[in-house]
Amino acid sequence: MVEMLLAQSFAKNMGL
């Protein structure tokens, strides 16, 4: 679960 959340946060930051 933590990994998934981190991956999503990272992807969103990159999308910025």
List the helices and strands and how they pair.
Blueprint: H1 2-15
Short summary of the structure?
By secondary structure, this protein is mostly helical.
Class computed from helices, strands and strand pairing: mainly alpha
Sheet with the most strands, sense and barrel status = none
Summarize model confidence as the mean pLDDT: 93
Helix and strand run: H
Ranges where pLDDT stays below 50 over 5 or more residues in a row are none
Q: Gap between N and C termini, in Å?
A: 23 Å
Structural overview:
The chain is mainly α and 16 residues long. It has one helix at residues 2-15. The longest helix has 14 residues, at 2-15. The relative contact order is 0.22.
Features:
mainly alpha, single chain, 88% helix, 0% strand, rod-shaped
